[in-house]
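Researcher: Good morning. I'm working through a list of sequences from a screen, and I'd like to move beyond sequence-only analysis. For each chain I'm collecting a predicted structure so we can compare shapes side by side. This is the next one on the list. No need for commentary yet; just the structure.
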Amino acid sequence: MSPTKWFARTLTVLAILLAGPALMAACTSQASQGWRNTDRSSAGIAPPPQDAAEAIVQVYSARAYGWRGYFAVHTWIATKAQNATTYVVHDVTGWGYQAVRSRPGAPDTAWYGNQPTLLSDLRGGEAAAAIPKILKAVESYPYPTSYTAWPGPNSNTFVSWVIRQVPELKVALPNTAIGKDYLADGIVAETPSGSGYQLSLKGYVGVLASVREGVELNVLGLSIGIDPLALAIKLPGIGHVGLLDPWTNNGSDLDAALP
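Model: Good morning. Structure tokens for this chain:
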């Protein structure tokens, strides 16, 4: 292949990958206020702790703040032990020396103006069994003081790591969770849901195939793929476009059919 044809094909691939983020930018209005004044209120998804004595584990995602939201989502995990009076929210941010944070608070707040989506919801005995494993995984996260928005390690790398350590968390993270494919050890691993495998070169390029995640091709952090069980396609920036709810453990019929 001549250099000219190679360059043209490379530009074509990049244009396809960037079409989704460009569409998001065209369709999304940016708020004029700074991050300090953006919405951080509860979406009312999680039950108040005083109304739910059972143990609860939830995983959320929301569009990242500012222009990063055209490309990616931010993910986090919330836990509430049985009879606890508050949730504890576990996530990673790019400010402060300690990237990993575990702090009391509402689990379902907007992420600086962007409403959260519930990805996983464990209750009762299953949640109680998962919480000690989650806390252990948070403590053993290999990048506790590191944050790199692209390609990782970042907030999605952290949540992906925790999910891999906790079999009860069978959630498939969105393809827009840039950083989820940044593997801590080696270049081959089980997918976060544990239902398949993936290969990734430090999040820059990779492939994955699994029952829950479907099939994804990752190029420079932007993932495109298909999710046969959800009858969906996965587009960079846009995310899932399909007929069925792709998220597991949140009351969908899809989860009942999965291993």
